[in-house]
Amino acid sequence: MINQKSKVRVLVVDDSAMFRRAVISGLSLKDNIEIVGEAADAFEARDKIMELKPDVLVMDVVMPKMDGLTFLKQLMDQYPVPCVMISGSADEKNAIAAGAADFISKPKSPADQKMFNTLLGTKVILAAGKKGKLPKPAAKTAETAKVDGVSPIVSPAMAAKVGRVMPNIPTKDDIAGLAQRCREGYIVALGASTGGTDALECVIKSFPDTMPPVIVVQHMPPVFTRLYSERMDKCCTVHVKEAEDGDRLTQGVCLIGAGGLQMELKKDHRGYYVHLYEGEKVSGHCPSVDVMFTSVAEVAGNKAIGAIMTGMGADGAKGLLKMHKKGAYTIGQDKESCIVYGMPMEAYKLGACSEQQPLNNIGKTLCRRLTDGWN
């Protein structure tokens, strides 16, 4: 038996649950391979990659939302990881061009499955040997390197934890004053990173349609923020969309900052709107939670309430402190419920948090504080 530490850690990505299980079953027979996770699409895979840090991806070419080749091209620019692509058609040339370490055709019949499993296992082991030979991402600034340097090792059990969290639903008393707060010009600001997609879903799902406008930065590359917004809009009561420059923030609307663009809150005689622009990374990120929180502090002052949630690094901590000093009410996600207790920890250390709350209680707390007031 090969030592546990020498096993190749694999993430399997395929939209077919049946084929995914067949691949996992076949690879699990190998003593030197460990399946650390699975995903049904590129969007889900992106979060699993950042949380589980697999040695090798095994990924289908044809998938909903975003095909495997498009996803792999974006991934190799930001987080190079060896990938064995699987396809039912002759996509080998395109797969290698997109950055795949290897390619394998899907079995044409159940009789071919055993040979497929053997060949795939071999290709996975060989791909793992290419890990240090992949193209490196763009050079990092000292600030970015510092953020990445605190990246922890996250266990599969911990990574799965957020997905099981159910929010404490606000009561009628909790939401009784939301419409009035909206008329008075209050706004909600949320920031998150690693583990944040599930965490934000837990929070935003608890918001009623009377919620004051919500502005969000979640660290994601371009395209993913649009896919995420579309998914969120289907499962939330409030209207969720990827922000575009000039979008208005009104009651029951949640805008999520677009990947690759900085986002600031602005205000004119008609009310709140957002300004999106191409800019340098701030605190290692674009969009940056610090940029968004800072603009909220300057524009909304004590009529803002914000929460900083799970994520590595310190982006958002200084911005949340500025909000706090301007009279905003600020919440930090507690250590126990975070996938990565980085950003909330840095905010707490600066004294930027009015209180800390577990993930399942953040949405309810935001509603209650808005209704009851804090000024």
Question: Quick gist of this model?
Answer:
By secondary structure, the chain is of the alpha/beta class. The chain is built from 15 helices and 14 strands.
Account of the protein in words:
The chain has 375 residues and is α/β, with parallel strands linked by helices. The protein is 38% helix and 19% strand. The chain has a seven-stranded parallel sheet, with helices on both faces. α1 links the parallel β1 and β2. α10 packs across α15. It is elongated, with a radius of gyration of 22 Å. About 7% of the residues have low confidence.
List keywords for this structure.
five-stranded parallel beta sheet, single chain, seven-stranded parallel beta sheet, 375 residues, alpha/beta, 15 helices
Compute the separation of the termini in Å: 63 Å
Secondary structural class: alpha/beta
Radius of gyration: 22 Å
Shape: elongated
Our count of helices gives: 15
How many beta-strand runs? 14
Which spans have pLDDT < 50 for at least 5 consecutive residues? 136-163
Largest sheet: 7 strands, parallel
Strand order within the widest beta sheet? 8-9-7-6-12-13-14
Output the helix-strand order: EHEHEHEHEHHHHHEHEHEEEEHEHEHEH
**Proportion of helical residues:** 25-40%
Strand content: 15-25%
Mean pLDDT: 86
List the helices and strands and how they pair.
Blueprint: E1 8-13, H1 17-28, E2 33-39, H2 42-52, E3 56-60, H3 68-78, E4 83-87, H4 92-98, E5 102-105, H5 113-128, H6 142-148, H7 156-161, H8 172-175, H9 178-183, E6 187-192, H10 196-204, E7 214-218, H11 224-235, E8 239-242, E9 253-256, E10 262-268, E11 271-277, H12 289-300, E12 304-308, H13 317-325, E13 329-333, H14 343-350, E14 355-357, H15 359-372
Parallel strand pairs: 1-2, 1-3, 3-4, 4-5, 6-7, 6-12, 7-9, 8-9, 12-13, 13-14
Antiparallel strand pairs: 10-11
